[in-house]
Amino acid sequence: MLLTDFDGTLSEVAPTPEAAVVSDLVRAEYDGLSTVPELTVGVVSGRRLHDVLARIGHAGEFAAGLHGLEIVGPGVEFRHGSLDAVRPVLARLAEAAERRLASCPGCLLENKTYALTCHVRLAPPEQAEQALDAFEAIAEPLLEARVLRLLLGDKAMELLPAVDWDKGHAVSWIRDHVARLTAHPVAVIYLGDDRTDEDAFAALGDDDVAIGVGGRPHTHLIDARLAGPASVGRFFAALRAARTI
């Protein structure tokens, strides 16, 4: 099974979430993986599930959004039970955050309905730090009450339901489902570039392969490193060529 992050792995990191695109080369090679015998592919992203599907199409057999809180695959669907309860909480918090951060240049709030992200990639460094501090302060009572949890990303901070579920759990859930269907053990190749992918790396075992993308340091041991999305596309091409000869 090959599972990959989206932003920074399949697509270059973009100034805003909407601007992220997969190059024609990477898309063609990713789509081509469906021709590899005995390989299941999918994307595990912090984006909403519908957003992931809109950007990769349905070439991937599995797609996970919100860091695995929602998953879809052939004949199967998973939706974490925490989502409905947290929706009104995040709606109120989004309104407060919009008022508090309205004067911050380059600060972008991304409301994912069941998660709320503060992006500061376009903000000046000093204002970016202040915006993240303010964003965390607004959420502090809900963080202390364990209603929400805080996830740090690359020039971003995200609020999610305070449940023990992340990209690592999503990888394990998809692996277990495929193993039940095939009645065979399933090895995983996982590619990711961001802090949130560390949870997926941590879920891998001795027979799996962890591939870091980009230059940021990883806290978990990785087996290989690719420079960026273009290199990811070339890796897909090499994998497909090796497995279809």
CATH class of the largest domain: Alpha Beta
Number of domain units = 2
Percent in strands: 15-25%
Query: What is the level-2 CATH architecture name of the largest domain?
Result: 3-Layer(aba) Sandwich
How would you describe the overall organization of this protein?
With 245 residues, this protein is α/β, with parallel strands linked by helices. Helix content is 38%, strand content 21%. The protein has seven helices and twelve strands.
Structural features:
245 residues; alpha/beta; Rossmann fold; Alpha-Beta Plaits; 8-stranded mixed beta sheet; 7 helices; 12 strands
List the helices and strands and how they pair.
Blueprint: E1 2-4, H1 24-32, E2 41-44, H2 49-56, E3 62-65, E4 70-73, E5 76-79, H3 83-101, E6 108-111, E7 116-119, H4 125-144, E8 148-153, E9 156-161, H5 167-182, E10 189-192, H6 198-202, E11 209-213, E12 224-226, H7 229-244
Parallel strand pairs: 1-2, 1-10, 2-3, 10-11, 11-12
Antiparallel strand pairs: 3-4, 4-5, 6-7, 7-9, 8-9
Quick structural gist:
With 245 residues, the chain is an alpha/beta fold. It contains seven helices and twelve strands.
